[in-house]
Design brief:
Length: about 450
Amino acid sequence: MDLFPDHPDAAGKRPLAARMRPESLNEIAGQTHILGEGKLLRRAIEADRLDSLILYGPPGCGKTSLAEVIARVTRRRFTRVSGILGNVAELRKILEPARDLRLRAGQETVLFIDEIHRFNKSQQDILLPYVEEGDVTLIGATTHNPFFFINSPLVSRSRVFQLEPVPPEAIQALLRRALTDPRGLAHISCEVTDDALAHLAAVCEGDARKALNALEIAVLTTAPGPEGLISVTRAEAEESIQKKAVVYDKDEDEHYDTISAFIKSVRGSDPDAAIYWLAKMLTAGEDPRFIARRLVILASEDIGNADPRGLSIAVAAMQAVEFVGMPEAQLTLSQATTYLACAPKSNAATLAIGEAMRDVQSGKVLPVPRHLRDAHYKGSKELGHTGYQYAHDAEHHFVDQEYAPTDKIYYAPTQQGYEATLDKRLAFWDSLRKHPKRPPETP
């Protein structure tokens, strides 16, 4: 006896996002970078020349919808497994019949595994022979970087496609279609203002599922007017969608992607972008000391001697963050971030140590000239540790003597900020040498 029989209205009770799942490639919102006309994935689907796939992207971007459309377009059986609930026994019950069905009737199967990164190594390994032989077309969906969270053999047998958050204009188009589609809200007499749709599309942060369900809540909870028409304005839209928590996993993709965007924005001299990424990290609960440490590294790596104050400010910020703590530490991090973003940039010092390290590690180890060796211990004079000339005794506090048995130039100051002054100083000292290290400037 079925304790929970299907009700005839059950389908209509499904959330709007479930009812509006796309039925064709043209109905998929966004993802034109992989599904646009002429793109590889679209061509493979339409020609039914499909390898196993791993779809990588944030929640609500259409991974499940795309898998279902692929099965529909290629006329393959569709079987779904959850990476959270699935186990080895369940996989075998799916994989063996799929193999038998392919060999016996030529019927192919799409095996869709949601959150495939949740499978452990043994579960992923079970898939390998079936994927290798083509018994199933595996489509794995994950919000985590597959190159880190999925076994290499499985990744190597699949094509990885990264899905992006659905852009606001595509979400607005999807919401408008839902208002007139029989699967959606066409049976309800309602109108939604452009401002309300724009708000839902902006606040959902690329999550089409969240936008659709918020639209449905707004329509169903708004009282109709005297003529029975439901009017949804921005006010109702704001009430229907809660502020979305910042997607940010401290030890996973969002952590690394966001700090990467932050550092690259500071390096690229865009204080506004840098402050945005800083705000995202702090809102998500990132350790402010981690951010401060990265700023200290950046001050030397990307600013260097173009503005020597950059390192002092970064180190002071690190100490202040440790001393003050949050939430006030955000002020210190903001000051340091904006200063470093606006500072002149040079990686000359970074290139210098990198080149020197490569030379030393490759075996180019130079002997210390005798006149530079320690002359304080007993017997040093007898060993020939003599001849050093004290720079401060000479004019300009400079002596033309050999400091390393090489003429290779490691540090080449740029013309950025204070490094232009350093470059002139080096050129002056070079002019005092009998054998200049740096070639004369080209007129």
